[in-house]
Amino acid sequence: MKWIPNFNSSNSLRVIFVIAVFILLFLSSIAYKHNQDLNESSKLAMHTYEINIQLERLMSAIKDAETGQRGYIITRNNRFLSPYLYSRDKVNASFVTLKKLTVDNAVQQKNLENLFKLIIQRFVSFENCLKYSDPKTYDKRKLDNHMFGGRILMENIRFQVDKMNDIERKYLKKRLEIYDQEISLSPVFSISLFLTALVFIMLAYRQISRDFQRLKLFNKQLLISGGLMAESEIIGKFSTWQWELDSHKITYSDNQYRLLGVTPNSFVPVIETFLDFVHPDDRAAVSESMDKIIEKKNLPFIYYKIVRPNNEIRYFKSTGKLLTDQQGSKILLGINFDITDEHLLNIELQERNRELEKSNKELASFNHVASHDLQEPLRKIQTFISRVSEADKAVMSESGRDYLAKIAVSAKRMRVLIDDLLLFSRTNTTKKEFIKSNLNELLQNAESELTEVINENKAIIKASKLPKLEVIPYQIEQLFINLIGNSLKYNKPGVPPEISIESEKVLSADYPDLLEQSVKKFHKITFTDNGLGFDPQFKETIFILFQRLHSKTDYPGTGIGLAICKKIVENHKGHILADSTPNVGSVFTVFLPE
Predict the structure, then answer these.
(1) Cα-only R_g, the chain
(2) Count of Cβ atoms closer than 10 Å to residue 441 Cβ
(3) 94 Cβ partners below 8 Å, 6+ apart?
(4) Which of 594, 568, 334, 576 is nearest to 474 (CA)?
């Protein structure tokens, strides 16, 4: 037998081994590349989910703020403001995160900038609603405008968020396609090197497991957000519903059932079952509005009553908006508000308004009595006292003459008191006609009125140039008379009164806790004297009606003059202050809007 060396076989094995090694290395490199691409695709997918989560958190924070604001407006309970107060921090945190997540996406950066501008406007709307719902600055028209504007802003914010979500969904779709391509290894490579494929599968499984855990975490966070929304509905006494117009399927939130007085999912939500809860007086109107929804695809605000199973009547307000999903299906999204507390509050306000009108009529009746019935017997008393001659007084006893003098003094004080009360009443009730007036002329008229007292006290009055303003002339003249007269009355014995009147223009921003900030400029007019002054602790109380710092035997007066001054300044949307140093003098400061 001829021996044939196994050289070729060995070489073949070496060649096959080398080729196998190169194939293994090649497959390993491909597998490695596939694994890297897989990781990158997974990160991109997670990136999209993180953006969706942050947008959901941002919307949840704004809804919490809106719910807290509504709860506060309805109840005036500061506890409802907690979500509103903390919402800014939550919004800012989500915005910073979104800014980082979209740093490499110019389109989303621009959308995010537009979204933040809308959110800023929404928080400005929140502040305006709180401002004009406050009893001190209550303005129903402005409140309604801002509430409606806030609703529009919320829709714009939702639209912007949906827009960003739509963009991310498109990105996600493309990324998932890449993801699918990357994980589909060639069947030839899988069969040729099963163990290598198995290794890569194990690596992929490990990565997928990690991704699955992250997805579970994100889903948990979404569930928490959904729970917060449900709690927000309960706190805010509102509910949401969806009406798929194509299939006529209606879906209620759990709180919709609660607002109707039943347990969640206790009946199938259809139009007929809902109408059963509507009060008979409103059923026709609600049914008509539902027909219009089908025709016009829109739901304006509608107000109606519902009757719960326990016969309790609640007041509702509903609205809705038509939405179209990516498949072209039309869905009407609606919101129901339980406004029973607000309705009852309006009834209470109407009752108070009626009581106020009644009080005004009684005040008018008092004015008539004070003007005629009270003054008539007082005039007769003063007339009869004046007719008592000196001869008649001579035959009287000393005590009789003393009593007669006291009667005359009391009658005179009664006359002054009635006149001051009538003046104070007219300051509240007479027609307030504002006329462009020169305050210098009104000041001259006031000085002319006080000429006798000024000359008697040898007073010196120095006044700078005063502005021309839209004022009620006779009231401003009375203001000057009372303030100058007050300085003349409380002068130092033996010291001629000196009164300095200065005027300057100031900005309301310089006095944020004092002046109305909606008016930018005010005229500050100061009346400074060198009189007796008063204890600064009384600088607020001296403007109270009938408040006197001295006895009537020391200084004449009724304690109404400065109360009239305050009422006049308030009629002009201004402010008045008093300050003093005993035995040095007093300063009265008047702010009048430009």
Answers:
(1) 41
(2) 13
(3) 54, 55, 57, 58, 61
(4) 568
Q: Which residues pair with 506 in a beta bridge?
A: 522
φ, ψ of residue 394 in degrees (nearest 5): -65, -35
* Residue 278 per-residue DSSP state: B
DSSP codes joined into one string, 435-450 = EEEEHHHHHHHHHHHT
Query: Do residues 571 and 475 lie in contact, with contact meaning Cβ atoms separated by under 8 Å?
Result: yes
Residue with tokens 């009406």: 243
Q: Amino acid letter at 303?
A: Y
Q: How far apart are CA 133 and CA 73, in angstroms?
A: 6
* Angle 333-336-339 from CA coordinates, rounded to 5°: 155
Percent of the chain with pLDDT over 90: 3
Pinpoint the alpha helices (H) of 510-560: none
Share above pLDDT 70 across residues of the chain, in percent, rounded to a whole number: 72
Backbone phi, psi, residue 462, to 5°? -115, 130
What pLDDT score does 525 carry?
92
Token reading at 120:
């800023």
* Segments in 278-397 forming alpha helices (H): 280-296, 340-368, 375-387, 390-394
How far is the CA of 83 from the CAs of 119, 130, 338, in angstroms?
A: 16, 14, 20
Q: What phi and psi, each to the nearest 5 degrees, are found at residue 420?
A: -70, -40
Confidence of residue 8 (pLDDT cuts 50, 70, 90): very low
pLDDT of res. 424: 55
DSSP secondary structure letter of residue 325: -
Nearest to 591 by CA among 484, 517, 529, 534: 517
3-state secondary structure of 556: coil
End-to-end CA, the chain: 129
d(C-alpha 397, C-alpha 407), whole Å: 15
- For 517-565, how does the pLDDT look when each residue is reduced to its tens digit (9 = 90+)? 778 889 999 999 988 888 787 777 777 754 454 444 444 445 577 888 8
In three state form, how does the secondary structure of 468-491 look?
A: EEEECHHHHHHHHHHHHHHHHHCC
Q: Using 50, 70 and 90 to split pLDDT, how confident is the model at 246?
A: confident
Say what the pTM is: 0.39
How far is residue 560's CA from residue 367's CA, in Å, rounded to a whole number?
Answer: 16
Non-local (6+) Cβ contacts of 234 within 8 A are 255, 258
Return the axis-axis angle of helices 398-429 and 473-489, rounded to nearest 10°: 140
φ, ψ for residue 104, nearest 5 deg: -100, 15
List, in order, residues 6 or more apart from 159 with CB less than 8 Å away. none
Beta bridge partners of 305: 315
Tell me how far apart the alpha carbons of residues 201 and 207 are, in angstroms, rounded to a whole number: 10
What are the residues facing 308 on neighbouring strands?
none
- Residue closest to 378 by CA, chosen among 415, 417, 423, 416: 415
pLDDT of 70 strictly over 60? yes
Q: How many helices (H) and strands (E) does the chain have?
A: 17, 12
Average pLDDT over every residue of 459-480: 87
What is the average pLDDT across 13-37? 58
